Amino acid sequence: MAKLKYRPINLGRWLVWGGTALVMIILPLILTAGFTLTLLSQIGVGIIFALSYNMLLGQGGMLSFGHAVYSGLGAYFTVHALNLISQGAFHFPVTLAPIIGGLAGATFGVIFGYVTTKKAGTTFAMISLGIGEMVFACSLMFAGFFGGEAGVSTNRVMGQSFLGITYGPSIQVYYLIVGWALVCMAAMYAWTQTPLGRMANAVRDNPERAEFVGYDTHMVRFLTLVLSGFFAGIAGGLSCINYEIVTAENVGAAASGGVLIATFIGGAGFFFGPIIGTIVFFTMVTAVGAMTKAWLFYLGLLFLIMVLYAPGGFASLILMHVPVIKARLMRRLLLPYAAALVTGAVLMAGLVSVVEMTYHFSLEAGTAPGMKLFGFAFNVTSATPWTVAVGLLIGGFVISRFAWAAVGRAWADIVHILQDRAVV
Amino acid sequence: MEFFLISMLNSVSYGLLLFMLSSGLTIIFSMMGVLNFAHASFYMIGAYFAYQLSGWLGFWPALVCAPLLVGIVGMAVERYGLRTVHKYGHVAELLFTFGLAYLIEEAVHLIWGRSSVPYVIPPSLEGAAFTLFSTDYPLYRVFMMVVSVSMLIGIYLTLTRSRIGLVIQAALTHPQTVETLGHNVPRVFMLVFGGGSALAGLAGVIGGNAFITEPGMAAAVGPIVFVVVVVGGMGSLAGAFLASLLIGTLQTFSVALDYSFADLLAKLGISIGPDTPLAALWDLTIAQTGPVLPYLLMVLMLIFRPKGILGTREG
Fold it and tell me: Which of A57, A275, B199, B258 is least surrounded, with the fewest CB atoms within 10 Å of its CB?
């Protein structure tokens, strides 16, 4: 019989949140390379955006293909507000300016959400796509508000400095983002514990029963979307302060697709999943994007592999090892994992070679047939590198299948052992 | 009158092309419940395959081979991709096709580069078919209509007269019963997915050279096809047909009409200056609003008739 527990202080939770805050504050002091601050700011804004997206996908079961509408319009309203403030039309601190974006996002959530949230599932997905396309098409029509091709730019440094904070140096903007990110993370986590958050889960899992109990599923989805639009708008406002420019791309399909990919590869089923996903996503975009033009291909491939083999995302991959580590069975997995890692590396090497060589071949086979890959210099028009690359790809595929079969067997054993122990 | 007739013909040919895309999407959706996000990507690779094959074999063999190849790709996608994620539900399937669309677009970038390829109308189909008043109507547009209409008749006959068509129709509503009767339903699904992809591929073969063959063509057409399916009613072939023609007409006519509200109000004696409230809205011409109209139609449809023109179910 389970005992009721009263725990006034949840130590683990305080540790996790405190640790997160500490890491976010200390990181720019440790990593001082030029691009890290840009990357960290991007990740901070991205975390708010991805968590707001997960209010829909993870908590409410609504797959949206047009979430950038709310963040993008939030960014546009913030940029116009900032321009008005600097002209002296009204007074408002820049520190709180993202709230303007949030209110704009929530307002558009009210306008669009009423139509889109009538149904969940496939219908919602299609309508959100349609709304996203509609807003993007509008951005080219109303050049006055959306700034046409060039976008709208602003200057975040205005007014008198307060305690030396001007938001001129980007480190100050980073700490502004960290502050907002922590507040938004806490608020969104708190939301999952409210009755509305719980009802959103119920409506996601079984709308019929939720309606039978007496809840209006449309209303629950609608309120979830408005709140999600609010937080997305805050993310948009922060990105406006960060970049000092807002273009039509902010409301475009690529931005909506990006947040979906980040959230999903992190794990939509867990609150912290989107945070992991955002970190992986932006690190990959920055790091892989710096190395190769085919980064979108690798990102798409990673996404497909996650959808096929790990639909719970990285978060579920991490969490599924917790009971194994607790039961001290991890060593049974180490050898199969090592085998999978080595064979996977061969497969990856083959795949990367084929992709990069194809790219080089289609782009500049005529002008510059020589290329360098993994430290080898070779001619892309000759047959030998192709044979090696395709050989690596096929060989890697075959041997990694053996390795993964071993991983599968090891897991089956562990599950057996855990079940036996649970029975005893 | 001349403008109206020519635009009408263009609308019909564009609408029929849209129908070739939306029919495949509708059949796949109503059978398997999968909204294929990568459908427009099959349209794109159809055009690229046709470009490659017509360079090697000529246009006419490419017209037959390219859709077949796309169909084979589609079947492989169903067999090795969709069937794996089927157990996780429809959202996972949708996500899979979403990722696939990304991957196909990048693969096209990899193989054929980022700019458009010179996929042109074959010489035998160049020139005018007939002259209407003073405008020469291009032969290729007529060819497009002929291919689309014969395809339409082909689908209709296959679905209603052939044995496999009857199995497909039965599997639409009662997949378990059909399986109990000894038909291999997963294989039927695979064939349907391949067939739908092949249709999209065929649309790409004849649309790619009429418009432009570039890596962005899937992203340009994809959302419109979704609008067609929603407006027509999810899972209704006849609805998709009507909606295709409707949206084809809407898009063709809107780009040609250069009138704005301000013009209309000026005729009524009200002048609109730059100081008038909402001046940006009044000065918009119909041509400028063209890209938004299909989506606006979709949103209005969802508010007033959520099941679409001929749909039988909501959502």
Answer: B258
